[in-house]
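We were asked to recover a plausible sequence for a given structure. The inputs and outputs are reproduced exactly as logged, with field labels preserved.

PROBLEM: sequence recovery
POSITIONS: 260
GIVEN STRUCTURE:
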């Protein structure tokens, strides 16, 4: 006859092994997720209106870190990584890319804008028209951008711009003769880029120098990655923890869209 007491240590050992396997599985899953976030892609959310026309407050998107190589600013806690200045496995961004970068003012705050000017370009805005190397960028009026202001439907003038490399996107023009509708000529330095928001009258970008509280020219090293795909979008009228409101607030039509 078997002694039941002798089975107790064996049962206890099996339970311990079971929980140990669960702990290891969770650990490896977190390790893999952390590695993916570090090296391949990372989620970001849109907190401001500066990219309206393309991105909305409440959009959540994946940003590809591998698109342009890696720098200390494209990795979490970048100052802890033994990386040299500049980038490794570098690949230059293309005009028109929507890019997340660390603002040069503090090298910490994440901004998202569209790349307009490449190194050596001469960029200017005259009467609301973008000029690159003295050539006006085609700007065609399209259907207005509609926004809901507390139940009030508001239409904003919207235009389609097409850059010299064929990249097209929509921009908003909230006011004629706005503060940034006429600028000086900006000559983009070597290894730097000129960024602009698609919501042209409501975007703090390279049109305002860093020393004046703006973005200024963005060093290649400060680029985090390229915005790729929208994986979630929710109306900004609700708080993130109000999950019971999500079904009616999710913008289903935006899910899965690529960012361009």
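RECOVERED SEQUENCE:
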């Amino acid at each position: 006859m078997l002694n039941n007491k002798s089975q107790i240590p064996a049962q206890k050992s099996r339970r311990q092994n079971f929980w140990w396997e669960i702990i290891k599985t969770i650990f490896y899953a977190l390790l893999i997720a952390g590695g993916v976030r570090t090296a391949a892609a990372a989620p970001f959310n849109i907190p401001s209106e500066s990219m309206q026309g393309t991105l909305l407050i409440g959009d959540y998107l994946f940003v590809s870190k591998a698109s342009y190589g890696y720098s200390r600013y494209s990795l979490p806690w970048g100052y802890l990584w033994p990386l040299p200045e500049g980038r490794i496995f570098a690949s230059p961004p293309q005009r028109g890319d929507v890019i997340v970068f660390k603002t040069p003012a503090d090298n910490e705050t994440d901004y998202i804008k569209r790349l307009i000017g490449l190194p050596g370009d001469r960029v200017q805005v005259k009467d609301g028209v973008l000029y690159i190397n003295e050539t006006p960028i085609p700007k065609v009026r399209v259907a207005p951008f509609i926004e809901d202001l507390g139940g009030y439907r508001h239409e904003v003038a919207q235009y389609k711009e097409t850059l010299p490399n064929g990249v097209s996107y929509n921009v908003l023009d909230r006011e004629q003769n706005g503060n940034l509708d006429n600028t000086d000529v900006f000559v983009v330095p070597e290894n730097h880029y000129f960024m602009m928001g698609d919501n042209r009258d409501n975007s703090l970008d390279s049109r305002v120098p860093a020393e004046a509280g703006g973005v200024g020219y963005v060093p290649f090293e400060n680029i985090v990655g390229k915005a790729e795909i929208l994986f979630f979008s929710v109306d900004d009228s609700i708080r993130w923890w109000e999950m019971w409101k999500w079904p009616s607030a999710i913008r289903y039509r935006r899910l899965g869209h690529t960012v361009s």
